[in-house]
Amino acid sequence: MNIAVMQPYLFPYIGYWQLIDAVDIFVIYDDVHFIKQGYVNRNNILQNQKSHLFTLELIGASSNKKINDIKIGGNSNKLLKTIKQNYSKAPFYNDVLPLIEDILDNKEKDLSKFLGFSLVKIAKYLNIGTKFLYSSDLKNDKTFKAQDRLIEMSKILNATGYINSIGGIELYNKEVFSQNDINLSFLKTHEISYKQFNNEFVPNLSVVDILMFNSKDNINNMLTQFKLL
User: Fold this and answer.
1) Residues 6 or more apart from 17 whose CB is under 8 A from it?
2) Strand ranges for the chain from DSSP E
3) Each residue of 1-55: pLDDT tens digit?
4) On the CB side of 190, how many CA atoms lie within 13 Å of its CA?
5) Is pTM beyond 0.70 here?
């Protein structure tokens, strides 16, 4: 059984979804410190043929607080309006808008639960059967750091494989995982592009853009466009 552990992000990019789809259990890493200027509460959409950064408002966000100690503010309706304005003519707008509305209309104020809800809803839309858990709900040693904590969570969940995004290749040691009977792999996304109106393709946008311009079948094909290292 394979697992992955990642901080929750707002409408994450395709590589994040490939990781979710590639594992049996995806652990939402919510009891670690919030990183300001990261992508926990921000992402990019297409606006006027360019990448446009949007941000979910937070209350009292600080790098001294854990993600599950932070509350969201009140600008989700503004984000929804921005998405509507920029994607109203996208081919799958009518299919996807109810999903985006359901996510942004969520009255949950806890940041980690709000983001977790969005991950579960989008996974269901894409027919991804991965099970989601929160790290804060696992009875693991919170004092462990970096790969030691990931190894412990893997053991608790009886995982034989751990898959990480390619960004962790300099952080985690395959040999140390192997000594704990866990196979460590890194997921590297292939170059992916698709038609965005009649514009030159703008890469690295959030899953909102992918959903608006692609059928479920096309997205499910994108989910396979990676290699494990």
Assistant:
1) 122, 126, 128, 207, 223
2) 2-6, 25-28, 42-47, 50-55, 58-59, 71-72, 131-134, 161-165, 183-189, 226-228
3) 999 999 999 999 999 999 999 999 999 999 999 988 889 999 999 999 999 999 9
4) 9
5) yes
